[in-house]
Design brief:
Oligomer: single chain
Strand content: 35-45%
Number of domains: 2
Bound molecules: heme C
CATH class of the largest domain: Mainly Beta
Number of helices: 5
CATH topology of the largest domain: Methylamine Dehydrogenase, Chain H
């Protein structure tokens, strides 16, 4: 595989010395402190990122996923817009309010609020253990109390009057909130605010927070209060991967962070990549109606996942994934069962054959028989030329194949 070009320039921003400021009346109470710090805007210290070069890899490994049943009692959940899991409980938030499900059974339900933006399981703001928290449609933060009732906790985080869009557990004792104006990071002692928003996407992990919006990525190291900004035109989504590296999606390109903190484009998809979500060792994404993963430097993409329109991804426990859409939430796991080459062909290529090639490439026809795995394998060099690279007389001679399918075929050939 070609080496990804490291051509992006990141700006090295000076550490933003946080200025401790008392926060009037809106302090973390029992958590102990009442300080909010603010950092200088990173906006004017941003270096541009170079154009993505055409040499960026565009072949992916096949990805096999299976749907995971999670709702054996068919609890009505409505349209779920936020979900989070604690050790025992899954909290669904959406059009029917909040539903707390444990062991497949409904443990509690609250239908007072039916507009929800985001949810997370975070270190408890008071005492030990964890809290399930969520931001409602107005950006107010609620936690689930031990008696399963909702309690407004915006004030505990110094966020009274602020509109929270995203909440993310940042590892260690860190909790991050992306608001309409910036990032607030609570560490159990204090809440620090960085006027760096607003963001379309927000992610956290390993003590780092990242936000994407308005053609920029901002990355905050919560331990050193160091902010870094990247110009990344069209960026829609960010994640922090298992190795604490930034991953970003901008248009068709997937960008990842190098050891020197610059960003490189590592993959070019046939369609825009969106909705990154890190679960376990993988960063998941959506491309078209397919699911993709980025892990250990490799990109894998499904063929035929048929995600609903406007789906969004949320990490689930056990390295699994939630897909939220207007319909019921779906839960997926990577299907790691070892696949024979023929089974891979059957899952990824045969469906394309069945829609785009069968009319002219069946058994007994003058053009090569491509109805079998053996037929494709024997003709893969020609298929690469005529179908993937569209050279000579491109195949198929009609428009019955799209860029996504060409990528699937190209990826299959690269893996043979
Ligand atoms: C409308 C009919 C038609 C469709 C649909 C079609 N092909 Fe073809 N294909 C042909 C014909 C006829 C030839 C032989 C003439 C030529 O090489 O152009 C051919 C040749 C080829 C060749 C070159 C074989 C060689 O030995 O040089 C490849 C590879 C190929 N097709 C692949 C495909 C694939 C893959 C698809 C589906 C994605 C497809 N074709 C769809 C009609 C079709």
């Amino acid at each position: 595989m070609k080496r990804p070009l490291a051509l992006a320039l990141a700006s090295a921003l000076a550490a933003c010395a946080p200025m401790e400021q008392p926060l009037d009346g809106a302090a973390m109470d029992a958590a102990g402190s009442d300080a909010v710090s603010s950092a200088d805007s990173a906006a004017d210290r941003v270096a541009p990122v170079g154009d993505a070069a055409p040499e960026i890899p565009s072949v992916a490994d096949p990805l096999f996923v299976r749907a995971v049943a999670y709702n054996p009692m068919m609890i009505p959940l409505g349209t779920v817009t936020a979900v989070t899991e604690s050790a025992t409980t899954t909290a669904f938030y959406g059009s029917l309010g909040m539903k707390l499900v444990a062991g497949g059974a409904l443990r509690a339900s609250n239908s007072e609020i039916t507009m929800w933006r985001t949810a997370a399981t975070v270190p408890a703001g008071i005492g030990t253990g964890s809290w399930i928290v969520a931001a409602d449609g107005m950006g107010r933060v609620h936690r689930v109390r031990p008696d399963n009732a909702l309690e407004l906790v915006s004030d505990r985080y110094g966020l009274t009057g602020q509109s929270v869009r995203w909440i993310a557990a940042g590892g260690m004792s860190f909790v991050g909130f992306a608001t309409d104006t910036g990032i607030a990071v609570a560490d159990g002692m204090a809440v620090r605010q960085f006027m760096e928003g607003p963001f379309e996407s927000f992610a956290a992990g390993s003590g780092r927070f990242a936000g994407a919006g308005m053609n920029r990525v901002k990355a905050l190291d919560a331990m050193t209060s160091t902010l870094r900004a990247y110009n990344l035109p069209g960026v829609t989504s960010v994640a922090i991967d298992a190795a604490a590296k930034l991953v970003a999606a901008a248009g068709e390109y997937l960008w990842t962070e190098n050891a020197d903190r610059t960003l490189s484009a590592v993959f070019r998809a046939p369609m825009p990549i969106r909705s990154l979500a890190r679960s376990g060792s993988r960063v998941w994404f959506i491309v078209g109606t397919e699911l993709g993963t980025y892990a250990m430097g490799r990109v894998s993409i499904t063929n035929g996942a048929m995600l609903p329109m406007n789906s969004t991804l949320v990490a689930a426990s056990s390295d699994e994934l939630w897909v939220l859409s207007a319909g019921a939430p779906r839960r997926y796991a990577v299907d790691t069962g070892t696949q024979t080459p023929e089974a891979i062909w059957r899952a990824t290529i045969q469906p394309i054959y069945a829609t785009s090639c069968w009319r002219c490439h069946g058994p007994g026809q003058t053009s090569p028989d491509l109805s079998t795995f053996a037929g494709w394998d024997a003709n893969r060099m020609d298929i690469n030329l005529r179908v993937v690279m569209e050279m000579g007389a491109p195949m198929p001679p009609d428009t019955s194949i799209n860029a996504m399918q060409r990528m699937v075929i190209g990826s299959w050939i690269a893996g043979r």
